[in-house]
Amino acid sequence: MERSGRLLLLSELRIRNTAYDVSLTRSVLTWKRRTSSPVYHPFRPSVHHSVSVSEIISVREEDEENISRRRDDGSWKKIKESEGKDCRQAFTVLYVERCRQHRWRCAEVTFTCPEGALRQHWVSSIREQLAAVANRPKHLLIYINPYGGKRQGKRIYEQKVAPLFAAAGVSTDVIVTEYANHARDHLRTEAELKKYDGVVCVGGDGMFSEIIHGLIWRTQIDGGVDPNCPDETLLTCSLRIGIIPAGSTDCICFATVGTNDPVTSALHIIVGDSQPMDVCSVHHNNAFLRYSVSLLGYGFYGDVLTDSERKRWMGPARYDLSGLKMFLTHHYYEGTVSYLPARGIIGTPRDAARCRSGCAVCQHNGQLLTERSEKYEMDETSDSESDGEWRTIRGKFLAINAASMSCACPRSPKGLSPAAHLADGTTDLILVRKCSRFDFLRHLLRHTSKDDQFDLTFVEVHRVRRFRFTPRHCQSDSDLELDLLGNASKRQIFSQICRDHPACGCAPAYSCWNCDGEILTHTAIDVRVHCQLIKLFARGIEEPAVFEDLANPCAI
Ligand SMILES: CCCCCCCCCCCCC/C=C/[C@@H](O)[C@H](CO)NC(=O)CCCCCCCCCCCCCCC
Ligand SMILES: Nc1ncnc2c1ncn2[C@@H]1O[C@H](COP(=O)(O)OP(=O)(O)OP(=O)(O)O)[C@@H](O)[C@H]1O
Ligand SMILES: [Ca+2]
């Protein structure tokens, strides 16, 4: 603490012809306007800025070429003749500035320092401190989906992100994908991962999904772990993943950063943030199907996705249209859900507290699960499931959703499960039973208001470590007989099905699973949460600082 607070430099420098006391410690750069009079002046408040060294992007020595310089937004900043002369004896610090709604911007301050040796000393001291900041990426592998969202991925990267990476001295290898699964397959087999400090995807949740599938698979194969076995403890991926949002929902970016803004995401990557995240593995009959980090949804969200895939040409609006259509269609599905409740952890899906930057619940539960899995590894006779009992629920459901994180997105800023945690090793299993359209609408509407979407008689939510689902028609005949009518005949069973689904033929027996926006080919699935399997260049949503908006010049 003392070491980081030790003063490294203190000088009087000028910012736009005004004198400032500028100081640098290992952790903070501060500039404070000099006051000529010790008397308090109500109309001239003291100007005092502090920037954490960990949030400095870079420092640049000014030369004549830099005098007329491009601003952040791409426009050219005119510098007066007299100012220009000053600039030649100046250096500029680029740093993170917080704006409203979790947005970050790259701000800059130019300090004039006519004395060459002192100026050099300042520039090299700041650079030394930046070099000492741990975990900043130097070399990144970037995948751009040119067709995601509104097809702006390439433009967003070139105009908003690449200039920031260049300013921060981050070098990049960029691949513009040419077909679906290009990024996944490149990561699985070809990419020279040792060369990089992280992988970045420019696209939506589907692109992010490709990246995690490539990285997780590669990590297991390289480490000799069989990803097909549902009971294997998977190896965590060492490379962090960055998301530059350019998709339709971008819920993983929104729920880990608090906003879908390419510049904010680029800055989180540059400062080297790290946010662990849970990943669910999905298996069918012991065969691996997919990984999921956000939503696994059967029924409503599965049907919305299936319908929306036919409307891809509409862009992000396809989800609203398909959502409305599926709401009116009002299908329900029968099946059995079994789950293993999460025990010994802190937190429940009905908590008022939210998963935020540095979340204590994620830290506690992450630690607990690591200790437990170490214990099980030592004691091979133990089974990681033996400390909990499976519970089973049979019924007719409009939706079965598993949210491994809040799934907050602009459509629903609090998300499907507002109290879910990014890295606690659990998923929130939400069961919406058959109910009237009016009641289902009440439930849906509560995703967009302060009201609790779980506080309804036909909705239940459980925090779980593992779950299985079997649609009714996959159950064995003997199961069906027991479930429905004891020892009734098959004819009675089918007459029951016909009563529930009248002869109009519009009611299908099966829905499909929406797995982070991809349709799964199987309906009977076995899902297991892997605690903190991956890491993102993010820090979780930050609590807004008190008076942030008042103090902040970019809060508009
Ligand atoms: C009346 C308004 C009710 C609004 C209710 C909004 C609830 C929205 C909850 C959004 C949850 C997103 C979960 C994220 C899933 C991602 O892994 C995945 C990949 O990107 N996205 C989707 O599957 C995309 C899924 C998109 C789902 C959109 C559902 C829209 C429902 C609209 C219902 C309209 C009823 C109107 C009745 C008058
Ligand atoms: N070059 C490409 N051509 C066609 N499809 C691609 C290409 N690159 C990636 N894809 C696929 O496009 C799909 C959608 O991409 P992406 O996630 O970027 O956008 P989105 O679907 O609009 O957004 P969201 O997933 O947030 O709803 C992904 O499943 C990805 O596999
Ligand atoms: Ca979780």
TrEMBL record:
Matches recorded under SUPFAM superfamilies: NAD kinase/diacylglycerol kinase-like
GO biological process annotation, one example: ceramide metabolic process
Source taxon at top rank: Eukaryota
A Pfam family that the UniProt record links to this protein: PH_CERK
Gene Ontology terms: cellular component: membrane
Domain DAGKc: residue ranges: 135-286
GO MF term set: ceramide kinase activity
Protein name from the UniProt record: Ceramide kinase
Organism: Seriola dumerili
